[in-house]
Design goal:
This protein is of the alpha/beta class. The chain has one domain: 3-Layer(aba) Sandwich (Rossmann fold), CATH 3.40.50.300. It contains ten helices and ten strands. The strands form two sheets. The protein has a six-stranded mixed sheet with strand order 6-7-8-3-9-10, sandwiched between helices. Strands 2-1-4-5 form a four-stranded antiparallel sheet, with helices on one face. Strand 4 and strand 5 form a beta hairpin. Helix 3 runs parallel beside helix 6, helix 4 packs across helix 6 and helix 6 runs parallel beside helix 7. The longest helix has 14 residues.
Amino acid sequence: MSINLSETREFQLEPASGTLIADAVSCWFGERKVLDRVSLEMRPLTVTALIGPSGCGKSTFLRSLNRMHELVPSARFAGRVLLDGEDIYDTSVRATTTRRRVGMVFQKPNPFPSMSIRDNILSGRKLSGMTTPNPDEVVEVALTRAGLWKEVRDRLESAGGALSGGQQQRLCIARSLAVDPEVLLMDEPCSALDPTSTMKIEETIQEISDRVTVVIVTHNMQQAQRVSQQCAFFLAAENQPGYIVEVGETRKMFNNPDDPRTEDYVNGRFG
């Protein structure tokens, strides 16, 4: 029986505000500084696209937003990241709690290949220590929100690794959504996918953004225009750390930016 999303018990709570604010964020790998005092407000239930040339710190910034940056042994961090007003780097805040509230989808799909589709969805909840009284409901809701339910509902016990690349990426999105995060970070989620799969991922982003704050790194300017409401343009001079040149509404950034460097980049004159 199909589940009406508006009537589900586990997911019927009002959306969390999901306001994410980076305040003077700087990041290093060893002695190399890769980000310099980046400040950005990522508005709740809004898709923010991070754009800019390769090597300007976009992915590092993204990983700093749920404390994945600190997993690199040589990494250092300065500044604050506020999630609904709470500094996620405060010593009283557990990194595992932050990573449940701020999910991550990587450039390359990373489902557990030998684990079933169903178990892939539930794995994040198990690892987070969350109770799941209605696992079938959680699986259907998460897959539906990720736009994958109709394609896999008759083979939930099949291995996640047997899915196509685009389906695997949507499975990873569903796995992240199953823990009911407030924010979902996406690091070039379509870079390895064909145009049809890319379109489905973009549809999924638009579908979930009424419940989850989304921050996406993309080098595809058309994609940034299609999926986001806000853009932040990153840049880095040679051997210098990355910084934000300009932030604004996506339409303005592409049609009437304040900085000529932004206009040059979005029109393909460099990068």
